[in-house]
Amino acid sequence: MKSRLFWKILPGFLIAVILILYSVWTAIVLTSDDYLSSERESARIVATYQLSAAQLAIESGGIAKFKELSQSWEAQDSDPRSGRNYWNRLSVVETKRVIDSEEATNGRRDFVVVYAIDPESKKWAVRYKLPPDTPPESWSITDAFPSILTIEWVIPGLLGGLLFSAILVWYVNRPIQRLRNGFRKLAEGQLSTRLGPAMGRRRDEIADLANDFDRMAERLQQLVLARDQLLHDVSHELRSPLARLNLAVVLAGQDAAAPRAPLQRIESEVERLDGLVGELLSLSRGESDESERDDYFDMRALVDAVVDDATFEAQYRGVSMVARIEPEQHTLMQGSAKLVRRAIENIIRNAIQFSAQGDAVEVSLSVDGELNQVMLLIADRGPGVPEADLLRMQEPFVRLQNGLDRQGYGLGLAIASRAVQCHKGALVAANRAGGGLVVTVTLPLMNMVLHVADCIVEKEE
Ligand SMILES: Nc1ncnc2c1ncn2[C@@H]1O[C@H](COP(=O)(O)OP(=O)(O)O)[C@@H](O)[C@H]1O
Ligand SMILES: [Mg+2]
User: Fold this and answer.
1) Which pLDDT score, from 0 to 100, does residue 181 have?
2) How far apart are CA 60 and CA 51, in angstroms?
3) Which intervals hold domain HAMP (predicted)?
4) Ranges 43-47, 176-180, 219-223, 363-367: which has the least confidence
5) 274, 299: one domain
6) Are residues 19 and 90 in the same domain?
């Protein structure tokens, strides 16, 4: 079992079991009469047995039979605790009269006496001398304990411990795994992730945690949607004054008396602003039409087309394009072909822009039948990106040091990553061994039901 929790719980559990066994054992031993009885009590048991046997022997076979019997007792060992022998304490004398035992002891608690009449009618008194009445010796717990640490106990104990720990870990680990998946998905940008339903009827701290997670995800989703909405609205509002400005510039240009240079400058700035607003609108995905949201398209053909287009730009920069498109048959996807195309274009264009003359940009598309997804890899041999910035560069308006001198607003990757997320896919950037960047896009294939419309901000009007 790969679980780390398991290996933490198992030793704790075993130690707890051993401690419990130890204290139960100690409690039993300390309260049991057997262990605490004095020596005299132990001797009395032997006495009762020996005296009644002696009485029987004398009554049936006379003193000769008694002697025979007492010889067999002499072979008995001493008591291991006290070192005293309880078996050789009998003495026998002939007596004139027979009295009952109560009277015979007559306050002398050191003896137990029985009387017997042999077949020849002689009377005998058999006396057992009790040992001194000492309290039990102090006794150490460790004397008794090791006796249960035998193989018969240890192996089932260990197996039980393993089983119990495995069940416990399974019970705790399963929801933790679900929580982990939830956090991972949320971190990947799937803000619609909710954990409540996965917890079922669970009502404990873990379920509370899942509920808190859901509240957090809900809030994040609202914030992101609000931001998108704002971005969309602002960009949208900027469009009309920009259009009017453009028109004004064109009209002013027709006036021969107007100064050329400033007008040209204004024109190019307006163009740039218009481009930015266009990108912003793409980022908030407000531009995609209702009809495009539920397109069906072939990923293989789409990548083919984007690579074809990019080859021109690449040739112009002296960069070669190497495409490896594995799938033989159609790779049907559902969603917005326009968004996905835009995403792939942005990534490929970055790869070309950051390549030096003579470098190659590699594009490869493959299908993972098991996970039912397509995987697109776009790799270059450019400068790569510092590890710490790999995630950050996907944020809007982030341009790293290596991108500052180029055209662009730092929106390309943000748009790409949004578009991929809308299709329940993932975009991951990593540095390549030997230099350069590789961007991996995974997208689910057709039969994963998609709701791209869910994350597209509704366009008013
Ligand atoms: N293939 C790449 N190699 C190195 N750096 C890259 C690559 N792609 C993107 N980057 C870095 O990530 C930043 C963000 O990229 P992007 O969102 O496309 O914005 P832009 O292209 O407008 O600068 C870039 O400015 C650049 O610093
Ligand atoms: Mg770019």
Assistant:
1) 92
2) 14
3) 170-225
4) 43-47
5) no
6) no
Closest ligand to residue 414's CA: 1
Cα torsion for 209, 214, 215, 219, to the nearest 10°?
A: 140
pLDDT of residue 21: 80
Same domain, 118 and 157: no
For residues 292 and 132, the model is more confident at 132
Overall domain count for the chain: 4
Residue 399 near ligand 1, beta carbon < 6 Å: yes
State if residue 393 touches ligand 1 by the CB under 6 angstroms criterion. Answer: yes
pLDDT value, residue 289 = 46
* Domain end among 261, 284, 307: 284
Q: Measured in angstroms, how far is the CA atom of residue 408 from the centroid of ligand 2? A: 6
Q: Which element (helix H / strand E) includes 10?
A: helix 4-31
- Give yes or no: residues 295 and 385 share one domain: yes
Residue list, CB under 5 A from ion ligand 2:
350, 408, 412
Residues 147 and 122 in one domain: no
275 lines ligand 1 (CB under 6 A): no
pLDDT band at 218 (very low <50, low <70, confident <90, very high): very high
Task: Looking at the structure, tell me whether residues 20 and 106 fall in a common domain.
Answer: no
Residue 177 covered by a domain: no
pLDDT at 450 over 50: no
Distance 405 CA to ligand 1 centre (A): 11
**383 Cβ inside 6 Å of ligand 1:** yes
Strands 295-298 and 111-117: unpaired
Do 421 and 391 lie in one domain? The reply is: yes
Amino acid letter, residue 140: S
Residue 383 Cα to ligand 2 midpoint, Å, equals: 14
- The domain boundary, picked from 284, 315, 330, lies at 284
Residue 358 DSSP label:
T
Q: How confident is the model at residue 458 (pLDDT cuts 50, 70, 90)?
A: very low
Q: Of the bound ligands, which one is closest to the alpha carbon of residue 352? A: 1
Same domain, residue pair 13 and 100: no
461 belongs to a structural domain: no
CATH of the domain at 451: 3.30.565.10
The pick from 378, 399, 401, 415 for probing ligand 1's pocket by mutation, whose C-beta has the most ligand atoms within 8 angstroms, reads: 399
Q: Which-ligand-closest: CA of 380?
A: 1
What pLDDT does residue 300 have?
Answer: 92
Domain that holds residue 48: 38-129
Residue nearest to atom 18 of ligand 1 (CA): 412
Which numbered ligand comes closest to the C-alpha of 275? 1
